[in-house]
Amino acid sequence: MCKNNVTLSIVIRYTPNQLYSYTMNLFKSALLLGFILLCSFLNAQDTLVHDTLHVKGVYQGKNLFVKNNFNENENGFCVKMVYLNDKMIMTKTNQSAFEIKLSSYSINEGDEVDIKIAYVGVIQPSILNLEDIGSSNKPK
Known about the structure:
Elements: H1 16-45, E1 51-58, E2 64-67, E3 70-71, E4 76-77, E5 79-84, E6 87-91, E7 97-100, E8 112-119, E9 126-127
Antiparallel strand pairs: 1-8, 2-7, 2-9, 3-4, 5-6, 5-8
């Protein structure tokens, strides 16, 4: 019976200049990664929603009009997303007022509609013609 023991030793020696260069490259890589993560986080801040305006009603053949307030803290408008029956239909409405074109979606007169408007900021957007979906409930 034959046993072969093999030992492999690798010794890597760096000169002070090589070690400094290697350390600086690691530092630059870590800094770049941190910068990318920070930018991603700041971009994600735009999509963070603080509150939701929620109304239910019955489609009566009319579209809805929404007043969208300007949020100075975000340097943009408050409304970030609009959902119709739990399906996202609009994002980043960069206007002071906009129309939710209910007639563009596969709903018929008399169908129930569930509208959620996701927004940031302290001032809630408002649906100007809430009565056009026969909503007796106040926005939540």
